[in-house]
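Translate structure to sequence.
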């Protein structure tokens, strides 16, 4: 009886009074994701790129501190959000399994293009996903490129998983696989850093274009309808101002300065 009374009392409390207790949000994301997001250094928790700038804007508009930091590889980030140890993922594609663990804030803040990368000396005809059948490929572990492609790849394609993006690129360059699947901008940024951009190319037809979302853990103590609506309104405002276009330019400049 006591438990039922407490639950009833909590249900009657206004959302605003509960949300006032949440004055700080923790966030993380894919740390191998330039020009969107990357780690400052091997010994640092600080992240740079276009996404931190967007999170600063969201924080200012929301009036709540958002601490964006490195917590480990992309797979660990997703696990921490699933357990509610981190409130937000700053940049995730939509998949059904992920939707069980986190709420997606709409609209998406960016659309990205996923490419099929090949050695220039080993290019092959490609117009559709089925053209990859019978060939060996690689991508980075725990990555998704949209629900439809993920399901197709699971049943029809032979795609290995690399621990890191640069490992996948080196597997491609070394001829261990015939293609590498990754998003255009991050793969191009890392290839330039490795000095191999002149040896590989993205095929003209992409795997697809996917929306990049801000998400909030279903187990986060801060996850309320009120907060989700506020986040959505802020992202709409950012979209209207085309802020991500500006932040991406700055992120590209930061990454290029880092690798010079």
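Result:
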């Amino acid at each position: 009886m006591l438990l039922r009374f407490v639950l009833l009392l909590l249900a009657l409390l206004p959302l605003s009074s509960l949300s006032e207790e949440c004055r700080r949000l923790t966030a993380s994301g894919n740390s191998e994701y330039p020009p969107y997001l990357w780690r400052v250094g091997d010994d640092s928790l600080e992240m740079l790129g276009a996404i931190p700038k967007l999170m600063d804007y969201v924080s200012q508009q929301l009036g709540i501190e958002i601490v964006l930091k490195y917590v480990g590889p992309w797979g660990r980030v997703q696990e921490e959000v699933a357990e509610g140890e981190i409130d937000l993922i700053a940049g995730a594609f939509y998949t059904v399994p992920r939707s069980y663990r986190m709420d997606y804030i709409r609209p998406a803040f960016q659309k990205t293009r996923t490419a099929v990368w090949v050695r220039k000396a080993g290019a092959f005809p490609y117009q559709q996903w089925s053209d990859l059948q019978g060939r060996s490929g690689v991508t980075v572990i725990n990555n998704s490129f949209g629900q439809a492609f993920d399901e197709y790849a699971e049943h029809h394609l032979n795609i290995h998983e690399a621990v890191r993006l640069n490992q996948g690129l080196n597997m491609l360059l070394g001829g261990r696989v015939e293609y590498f699947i990754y998003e255009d901008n991050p793969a191009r940024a890392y290839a330039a850093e490795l000095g191999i951009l002149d040896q590989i190319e993205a095929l003209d037809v992409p795997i697809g274009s996917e929306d990049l979302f801000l998400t909030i853990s279903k187990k986060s103590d801060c996850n309320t309808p009120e907060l989700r609506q506020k986040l959505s309104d802020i992202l709409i405002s950012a979209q209207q101002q085309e802020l991500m276009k500006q932040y991406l330019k700055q992120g590209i400049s930061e990454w290029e300065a880092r690798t010079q």
